Amino acid sequence: MAEKLGIMVCGHGSRNQNAAREFAVIAEALKARNPDMPVEYGYLEFCNPVIAEGLDRLRAQGVTRVLAVPGMLFAAGHAKNDIPSVLNTYQAQHPGFVINYGRELGIDLKMIRAAGDRIQEAVDAVNAEHGFVDRHDTLLMVVGRGSSDPDANSNATKVMRMLWEGMGFGWGETCYSGVTFPLVEPGLTHAAKLGYKRIVVFPYFLFTGVLVKRIYSYTDEVAARHPEIQFVKAGYLNDHPLVLDAFQDRVRETLEGQAVMNCQMCKYREQVLGFEADIGRPQESHHHHVEGIGGGLENCPCKGDCDASCRDEDFCRQHGLPFTPLHSHAEPNALEPVFDYGASVTLGGKYAHLMNAAPDADLQAVMDAPSTGKAHGHEHGPDCGCGHHHDHGHHHHDHGHHHDHGHDRNHDHGHHHHDDHGHHHDHSHGHAHDHAHGHGHGHGHDHHHAPYPHADHPLGPRSMQKKK
Fold first, then answer.
1. Helix, strand, or coil here: 311?
2. How far apart are the C-alpha atoms of 322 and 294, rounded to whole Å?
3. Residues contacting 241, CB < 8 A, separation 6+
4. Other Cβ atoms within 10 Å of 257 Cβ, number
5. Within 10 Å of residue 53's Cβ, how many Cβ atoms?
6. Which among 36, 219, 288, 460 would be 20 to 30 A from 58, CA to CA?
7. Integer-rounded Cα radius of gyration of the chain
8. Helices and strands: H and E segment counts in the chain
């Protein structure tokens, strides 16, 4: 049978219907650029269609090989674990159906130029309305998503530096919307002390949603405390033509087998300072219980432009809306209430039972508590499964965990490729997995996750406890 190609755009998902509509625009743009290939899209959580439904639609159109690209700016847990796990599971359940997984948008000159355009648009508008301010008197604040993956967080800082240096602002800073530090409010509070006349706040985000609305809300809050400084809220990336070009590049790379991820800095493959416990962790998705549950919010007073009020159980009961508790994962969910970061610092692994039993307990006491979580089995061998040999000071380890979730086939959607150094890469962290996880959409799945090691940082989620 002749091979038929199709494209699958894999998104995170949001309860904000405007964000979902903007994501769909990307898929439509790729359809226009690839008229000979079917293009579908799907989400990990809170939106329909889910990724499996998008793949079903491609199969129904006769597609035999899928080029799956993550709709993610940087490669953190969603791009490295959640999406590949969903794709692996689907391929295992449909023999003969091939899925090649591409890489994230990443550090890309097209993306940098698109970001520069959004910033310049905001600067031009405020200059026209309120008068010119020299760039040397302006501080640029780039706001990243924030992740438990230090490589992804550092990429946001690199984007900031390239924009700062390329556009010639007087100063540049980076902060994050969640998970890591500094968060937006403490980041802007610090920036306000540096003496600049204008602060341009640029959310380095693809689409609108709860987090972008939160970034703008915190900007207004800090601006009210500093009337002497002009705060400018720049627009996010959205469907800038260069963003669409970058997506098309990822499709082409996936087709040609050139989707090379940054494995050298991956905390699952290498011993990253402060994140040594993450090396060799299983590649699995933690979003099964929130797949496609965003429906039914059309009656919400937000009228689809979600501001996370639906995270409040009383609000949901009052308006007849479905209520979904927070994730019990190491990485906080994207939809915590605006002033409730403290409640989102939920820890997995050996700490999960302690946080559930005593949510108001001192965090350091929790982290110092003995482990009762179940450890994953390890098979030790000559290397870690990624082609690099490591000297750990005592002996070599093979961190490729072998998991049996219901059948005996191992799959790797990150087709194998080699970089200029001759190292072998794939997108599965070197783990051999069987992928029929068998999770339902309830809240009782029993994965154990590594906690973010700096969840108690004073400028991170804990800094918002005073807002409660």
1. helix
2. 8
3. 114
4. 12
5. 15
6. 288
7. 22
8. 12, 12
Alpha helices in 300-445 (DSSP H): 313-319, 352-357, 363-367
Q: Where are the domains of the chain?
A: 109-233
Tokens of 138: 């302006």
Cα(164)–Cα(277) distance, rounded to whole angstroms? 34
Residue type, 19: A
Whole-angstrom Cα distance, residue 116 to residue 161? 12
Query: Residue-wise over 135-170: b if at least 16 C-beta within 10 A, else e?
Result: eeebbbbbbbbbbbbbbbbebbeebbebbbeebebb
Q: How far apart are CA 175 and CA 202, in angstroms?
A: 10
Amino acid at 276: E
Q: What are phi and psi of 152, to 5 degrees?
A: -65, -40
DSSP state of 183: B
Q: Among 147, 453, 209, which Cα is nearest to 338's? A: 209
Q: How many CB atoms lie within 10 A of CB 421?
A: 8
Q: Report phi then psi at 362, rounded to 5.
A: -60, 130
Q: In 10 A of CB 425, how many CB atoms?
A: 23
**Separation CA 13–CA 428 (nearest Å):** 22
Give the C-alpha separation, 141 to 202, whole Å. Answer: 6
**Out of 3.40.190.170, 3.20.20.140, 3.40.190.10, 3.40.50.1400, which CATH number does the structure's domain 109-233 have?**
3.40.50.1400
Burial class (CB in 10 A: 0-12, 13-18, 19+), 185: buried
What is the SS3 assignment for 251? helix
Contact between 169 and 138 (Cβ < 8 Å): yes
